[in-house]
């Protein structure tokens, strides 16, 4: 998969214009089932027209530029993870457009000129609610009206489940609630957080439950605090585990609000400091709680471990 980073207006003239594209366009945070329907439509159209498939996404999140947000924005899929998923979906090319103030000021007509016509896009696919151009004045009907026959347009209607539209907003709410199973239904896969194994306080080892301390990739959305049945990808192999995400109230001063993600990996005894990993979150077993002492904590962790083993046994 080719990844092309674009910034308006500087890098647009450096492109190889020989390829023609069927383009899916959107922010696609989470690459959930609704997004996948848009991307699959673009891939199918590419095969029909015998041209290359492409996805256009944006970085950073538009709200950082448009809303002047001072708080951090947390992504369901940080950029590299999004690119990995797009690769798995079979996309040929990804255009990552840097979302800047200048880019945000483009008129819908200029957006189409620079990012559709000048890129030799022959077909554009997006969701029904995709907007573009200054103040989001352009929508997919605008995209059709301004085409002059230079490119085709497909508008993908909303994808719903029993409740309502499948959306990144709903997924975020499920993650905030710790409802990993509902999030997975909308994503089409378990929610995953990429990270790196770092040194922690090593207290788990002293009580017989060694843990991998995970430092999540900057900008990752971390689910609600609690204890979860998880799977962790280490050195290209998935292992079952139990994860505690929270503030370790049994040991910590209540004023110390440093969030930690610790995974006790089942049937595992390697030293993996510095390894890049992925944590797949499957089920929240319980909320985080403070215990009276080490023995009570150990007994509960043993219960959590057994519950996770049982969960994955029934899952497979």
Radius of gyration: 22 Å
Our count of helices gives 10
What low-confidence regions span 5 or more consecutive residues with pLDDT below 50? none
Class by alpha and beta content: alpha/beta
Largest sheet: 6 strands, parallel
CATH class of the largest domain: Alpha Beta
What's the CATH architecture name of the largest domain?
A: 3-Layer(aba) Sandwich
How confident is the prediction overall: mean pLDDT?
A: 90
Assembly state here? Answer: single chain
Strand count: 14
User: Domains counted in the coordinates: how many?
Assistant: 2
- What portion of the residues fall into strands of 2 or more residues? 25-35%
Order of helices and strands: EEHEHHEHHEEEHEHHEHEEEEEH
What is the helical fraction, as a range of percent? 25-40%
- What would you give as the CATH superfamily of the largest domain? HUPs
EC number: 2.7.1.26, 2.7.7.2
Pathway: Cofactor biosynthesis; FAD biosynthesis; FAD from FMN: step 1/1; Cofactor biosynthesis; FMN biosynthesis; FMN from riboflavin (ATP route): step 1/1
Keywords: ATP-binding, FAD, Flavoprotein, FMN, Kinase, Multifunctional enzyme, Nucleotide-binding, Nucleotidyltransferase, Transferase
Organism: Lysinibacillus telephonicus
């Amino acid at each position: 998969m080719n990844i092309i980073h674009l910034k308006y207006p500087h890098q647009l003239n450096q492109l190889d214009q020989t390829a023609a594209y069927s383009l899916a366009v959107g922010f696609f945070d989470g690459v959930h089932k609704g997004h996948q329907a848009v991307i699959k439509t673009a891939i199918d159209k590419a095969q029909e027209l015998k041209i290359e498939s492409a996805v256009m996404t944006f970085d950073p999140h538009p709200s950082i530029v448009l809303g002047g947000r001072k708080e951090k924005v947390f992504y369901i899929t940080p950029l590299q993870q999004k690119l990995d998923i797009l690769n798995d979906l079979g996309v040929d090319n990804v255009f990552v457009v840097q979302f800047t103030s200048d880019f945000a000021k483009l008129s819908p007509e200029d957006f189409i000129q620079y990012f559709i016509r000048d890129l030799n896009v022959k077909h554009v696919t997006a969701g029904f609610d995709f907007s573009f151009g200054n103040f989001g004045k352009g929508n997919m009907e605008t995209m059709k009206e301004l085409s002059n026959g230079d490119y085709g347009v497909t508008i993908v209607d909303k994808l719903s489940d029993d409740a309502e539209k499948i959306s990144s907003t709903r997924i975020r709410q499920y993650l905030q609630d710790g409802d990993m199973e509902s999030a997975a239904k909308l994503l089409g896969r378990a929610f995953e957080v990429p990270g790196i194994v770092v040194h922690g306080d090593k207290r788990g080892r002293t009580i017989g439950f060694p843990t991998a301390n995970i430092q999540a990739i900057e900008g990752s959305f971390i689910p609600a605090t609690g204890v979860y049945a998880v799977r962790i990808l280490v050195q290209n192999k998935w292992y079952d585990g139990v994860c505690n995400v929270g503030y370790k109230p049994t040991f910590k001063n209540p004023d110390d609000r440093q969030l930690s993600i610790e995974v006790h990996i089942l049937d595992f005894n390697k030293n993996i400091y510095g390894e890049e990993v992925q944590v797949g979150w499957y089920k929240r077993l319980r909320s985080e709680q403070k215990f009276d002492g080490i023995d009570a904590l150990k007994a509960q962790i043993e219960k959590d471990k057994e519950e996770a083993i049982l969960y994955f046994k029934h899952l497979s």
